[in-house]
Amino acid sequence: MESNVKCLITTKPNKGKKCINEILNRLLTKDINAKVIEYINNILLVYSNLDPMIIYGLLISSPPSCAEKIFPFHLILEKDEKKIISETMNFMINKFKNIKTFFVRCYNRGGEINCRTIEMGIGISLRNFLIVDFKNPDIIIYVNILKEFVGISFLKKGQEKFQLTLSHKI
Q: What percent helix, strand, coil does the chain show, rounded to 5?
């Protein structure tokens, strides 16, 4: 399993190579061993010794011009549907005590797991603890399915976007 991968970043069309340098310019000051690869077209993986939320902070505070979304991985799991559902449920229940509403958004980026199964499975497993709310959730569970592993991110609505719309700005 990919132990050093910390985030997934989506880029604007055909900007992956350009974006790698912009991201590294921000990360290398804190981690000289940081590495960014273009996993598939317009999808970058960030490898680092830094905590995923530190990377998130470094990049979101000075966004790369070519990047669109960032998903810091709070969990990295094997490609096993039951394990993905149970580990995500346990993490939510143990880590987020004040959360009342949520929903799940899954992206299949080359793995053979069905996103609908994961979304439904996590939703059903949390139904006794939280309420599903598609319009105004306290937290969104992002599931990124890759060929080798599954990365799970827990973010507030709009927190994954580099370019915030006027409704998200404070």
A: 30, 30, 40
Q: What is the pLDDT of residues 4-24, one digit of tens each?
A: 999 999 999 988 888 999 999
Q: What's the whole-model pTM score? A: 0.91
Q: Based on the domain organization, do 83 and 147 belong to the same domain? A: yes
Sequence-ordered list of residues with C-beta below 8 angstroms from that of 120, at least 6 positions apart, any chain: none
> Helices 81-95 & 115-125, crossing angle to 10 degrees?
40
Q: Which domain holds residue 118?
A: 75-155
Confidence of residue 96 (pLDDT cuts 50, 70, 90): confident
State how far the Cα of 60 lies from the Cα of 58, in Å rounded to an integer: 6
Rounded Cα gap, residues 146 and 148, in angstroms: 6
Are 85 and 149 members of one domain? yes
The answer to the question of residue 163 being in a domain is no
Q: From the CA atom positions of the chain, what is the Rg in Å?
A: 16
Q: Do residues 56 and 67 share a domain?
A: yes
Backbone angles phi, psi at 33, to 5 degrees: -100, 5
Q: Which residues pair with 155 in a beta bridge?
A: 140
